[in-house]
Design brief:
single chain; about 375 residues; alpha+beta; 15 strands; disordered N terminus
Amino acid sequence: MIKKIVLGAAVLLTASVFAQDALHFKGNIKGIPNDAQVWISAGKVEKTIAVKDGKFDERIPLDGPESVFLYVKEGQNFKHAVFYLGNEEVWIEGSIADFPLNLQAKNSKHDALRYKEYLLTRELQAQLDELEDEAYDLMEGGADKDSLYESYMGVPSGKITKIRQQLKVKEFDFIKAHINTDYGRFLLKFNTTDFTPAQFKTLIEAVDPVYKNTKEIQFIQALVDYPALQEGDQFYDFKALDNKQEQVNFKSFFDGRYVLLDFSTWFCGYCHRAAPLTAEMAEELEDKLNYVTYYVDNDEETLLQYFGLKNNKGTLLWNKDGQFNPVLAKYRQMMTPYYILFDPKGKVVKIFEGIKDDFADQIKVQLQS
């Protein structure tokens, strides 16, 4: 009897540990053809799953609560569903017609909030989609672009503008109410350009002390503490890892030359096009210009691949916590590629959002002025 009790306890303990180490993803989604390709993706992990008559039962390890995507492909038809899950046991019940957002992972506290937010903003989002389609059809039909822009995108009374403002209000209120949850903090990275410093300060004040040092809260704290740089402002210093995995200070690159700070990533098509061109430019101007690339993601493998696009030339900086690093908040880096040119004394000369064919010529003009 004692042996049976001990064995049973061991089995329960093993099952509990296993459940904590992986997402147990199972369910029944009607409408998925048996011959369709189906796979699940989360972070760097991707796994094909077997689906029979809509039923599936798979496990996939997660680093923590994060976005989980379920993909279904049959011929040229491609659909996906989105969840926010941790290493937990969940059940999905519904139809492929509910893709991409109207499916809830039952038994998940994380996805319950994701689904709650979806329901909260669903009607406004549908109105926004309808207006965007309407504006596009009118433009294709030959409507005057200036008047069309003013009618739909004008501030503050454009049709689309007003809906977006309503969405921002709902999103802010939702995040404030759930700032002490993983999902509430996860939403912050999608709203870094939508909220004011005062709103971010309000969010910080609502944070439980136990979460003050999380990367998301440290990120928005930097948004509050460091105003957006303008031409003539002094650079913000930061620490990062260089090509040799040694920690350096950004200020060390001000050695009497201009400094071009470039924010890029492997996961950006424009960055792929820009990398060899800017590397060539940097080599040509190395007597006057110190060219520094900050890699915004935290994946070392793709970092090295991106460095290869630059022919392994120049300086590449990065931080292991990726897109929630306060460096990106200080510099309001919300797009790639993104360039800031500093003079030898560290003052902002010009900010370039994106890159054009004459980028090298624009830089040369600034160096001569």
